[in-house]
UniProtKB/TrEMBL annotation:
<keyword id="KW-0378">Hydrolase</keyword>
<dbReference type="InterPro" id="IPR041424">
    <property type="entry name" value="CinA_KH"/>
</dbReference>
<dbReference type="Pfam" id="PF02464">
    <property type="entry name" value="CinA"/>
</dbReference>
<dbReference type="InterPro" id="IPR001453">
    <property type="entry name" value="MoaB/Mog_dom"/>
</dbReference>
<dbReference type="Pfam" id="PF00994">
    <property type="entry name" value="MoCF_biosynth"/>
</dbReference>
<dbReference type="InterPro" id="IPR008135">
    <property type="entry name" value="Competence-induced_CinA"/>
</dbReference>
<dbReference type="InterPro" id="IPR008136">
    <property type="entry name" value="CinA_C"/>
</dbReference>
<feature type="domain" description="MoaB/Mog">
    <location>
        <begin position="4"/>
        <end position="171"/>
    </location>
</feature>
<comment type="similarity">
    <text>Belongs to the CinA family.</text>
</comment>
<dbReference type="GO" id="GO:0016787">
    <property type="term" value="F:hydrolase activity"/>
</dbReference>
<protein>
    <recommendedName>
        <fullName>Putative competence-damage inducible protein</fullName>
    </recommendedName>
</protein>
<dbReference type="Pfam" id="PF18146">
    <property type="entry name" value="CinA_KH"/>
</dbReference>
<dbReference type="InterPro" id="IPR036653">
    <property type="entry name" value="CinA-like_C"/>
</dbReference>
<dbReference type="InterPro" id="IPR050101">
    <property type="entry name" value="CinA"/>
</dbReference>
<dbReference type="InterPro" id="IPR036425">
    <property type="entry name" value="MoaB/Mog-like_dom_sf"/>
</dbReference>
Amino acid sequence: MRVELITTGSELLLGQIVNTNSAYMAAKLNNMGFDVLYQTTVGDNYDRMRDVIKNALLRSDIIITTGGLGPTQGDITKYVCAEITGHQMIKHQQSLEQMNIHFVKRNIPMTDNNMRQILVPESSYVLMNHNGIAPGIVQEYNNKYIINLPGPPREMKDMFERELRPFLQNKFGFSQVIQSQVLNTFDIGESLLETKIKDLILAQKNPTLALLVRPSGVIIRVTAKGNDFSDTEKIIEPVKQEIYRRIGEYIYAENDENMETVTGNMLKQKKLTIACAESCTGGLLTSRLTDIQGSSDYVMGSVVSYSNKVKMEQLQVPQEVLQIKGAVSEETAEFMAQGVRKNLHTDIGVGITGIAGPDGGTDDKPVGLVYIAVAGQGKTTVSRNLFSGKRHEIKYRATQKALNMIRLYLTQNMS
């Protein structure tokens, strides 16, 4: 079944709020086996909304709108849909009773315009709103379905799960499901990654492959359609294993697992401790490591060493290194990592020094230059990096690189 999602509201077109409803519904509907082929946003204009919905009916089997079910004159979605289907609006008694209870419980007056919320087209199927007032609406029209859901995400999500999902399951059944699995990569660019698995992408039918660039790296999404999730697992697994065979060294996690979780779990499993010495990242690496529950088992502490004085006094970076090589140098990063490891008595020390910008760069040491060192027992690894982007982006990319270096260090030296 072809589905089109239509989000309504001029505030969306003005960029005043972010449309999270479509992302939520698309994921849910795709997993249920529906094909979400189009997403459209339209403002609170009667004629334009009518044109958008009529156009959707030409190419889709199910049209789902969100927004425009409230009490104001700008809430027009269900009126537009009722005009298209040729139905009159009537009061929905159960919603009216629920609305009266809503206002009595809160001891606030109910204005007359709230009656607009409980009007529904005659002959429609009503989806009850358990977190608000305005019910959802399902209308069958020329063997197609127009479905109206409320705009507030809390109301929409609850209505989708408790009302719309059962309706769709009972109405259509699901001969197939769609499942996606994600492989998270780091330190490999999109173009090189595509080259390494291009034949798999070109051959795709079921499963399909897609590359998506994220701040954390490039992700590979493998999507399969099957009779059930056991079926899709069997379809995905061989392709996933082939991808691992080709680029496994770049894959650090699957699905929603992030770099700090992976690195933290490795530290915990190996019963190792870590300390960080951060200059340009200002404590962001430590913050990411300690975002993970139970991180106190392995994160012993950190030093934010913006000034050379702190680098010398707290981390024992030699003054001559700072004078000759500079604060942003391979040597300084190495001394920072070794110093924080020694002073905080940890198994691993990390040192980060660089220029996050927007000022401070030179021809020899431009903005984005960051040195990262990981020190362990008898061995220190240092990486020179040139990151692009704004200040916060450079800081994030530096910490992502540092986390990956820790992960690789643990993999290669602590097995």
